[in-house]
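Project standup — Tuesday

K.O.: blocked on the structure for the chain from last sprint. Re-posting the sequence here as requested.
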Amino acid sequence: MREIRENAERSFICPYGVLSAESKGRAREEDPCPMRTCFQRDVDRIIHSKAFRRLKHKTQVFLQPEGDHYRTRLTHTLEVMRLARTIARALCVNEDLTEAIALGHDLGHTPFGHAGERALREIHGGGFAHYEQSLRVVDVIERDGVGLNLSYETRMGILNHTYGSQDDTMEATIVRFSDRMAYINHDLDDAIRAGILTEADVPERIRTALGDKNSIRINSIVTDLIQNSKNGTVQMSEEMGEIYDIFHNFMYDNVYYNPKAKSEESKVLGILRGIYEYYISHSDQLPEDYNCIAHKDGLDRAVCDYVAGMTDSYAMETYSKIFIPMAWTVK
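H.V.: unblocked you, prediction finished:
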C-alpha cells in the first residue's frame, strides 16, 4: 500500500512538492512501513506523542479564560493544520508532509503562551525559542529521551515555521503562512468573545477587504494566497500583503499588548522562575527521564525542558506545592 501511494503521488504532486519516496530520510534508519508513507508515519507519531496531548491545556493568548470556547494551543494547531492542508491540496503539493509540520510546529510551546516563552528566555541562560524547542521535543525529549525520529523535511519545517529558511519546502512555507493566518483571525474572534474588542473596532479597511466574520476573513486570505502562488513560490498579492500587515499591527496594538488581555502575565515570570530555580537546587526531584537529559545535556537544559513541557494548570499546581503551605489539621 505504501508503494501504491508513493507511485500515485507522482501523478498529482507538482514538481515543486516533496515526494514521499524522495524524502531525505530519518536520522536513525528504519524499515519503511508497508502501509504508510514516511510523512503519514510522522503524522501518527506526532498525534500520539505526550507533547501533542498536553497542548490542550496550554494557553494560546488568554490566560485562564472563563469559558469553554477560547482557543488553546491544541485548537490553534488543528486550525493551522486544516488551513495548511487546504492550501497544499489546491497547490498540488504533499498534504501529508504539510499536515505533519503543522501538527508538530508548536510542540515546544511553554505554559502561559508567549508570556511563558518570554519568561524562559529570560530565566534560562541558554535562551529559549519555542520553534527550537519544538524540534528538541521531537528529536530528544519524546519517547523517554529517544525522540520520534521524524523525517528530515518534517523536522526542518517544524524548526523554521516562525521565520522560514532559504531551503524551505513549499509545504513548510504553506504551514508558516497558515500559522500567521490562523492566529490573527482566531485571536480576533476570541478577543471579541472576551469583550476586549467589538466588530466595530476592526478598521474599516480590514472589514472591507476581508469581510466581517472570522470564516469570511480567513477564506479571503486563503483564496488570495492560492490564486497568487505559482512556480514554487507561495505568496499573497501585494494588496493582500498590505492588508495582512495592517491586520497584524492592529492585533498587536489592541490585543497582544492590551492591558486587559495581559493583566495576569506579570505573574508568569515569577511562577516559572520559582519552579526553575527550585529544580536547579533539587535536581533529585526531577522525573527520571529529565534526570537522563541532565546527565547528557546539563541540569539547566533538563530543567528548562521540564518547565517548558508543563501545561498551565500543572505549572500552577507545581508552584503551589513548592511554595504555598499546605493546610493542616490537629487530630
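K.O.: great, moving the ticket to review. The domain at 2-166 is CATH 1.10.3210.10 (Hypothetical protein af1432). Residues 170-193 form the longest helix (24 residues).
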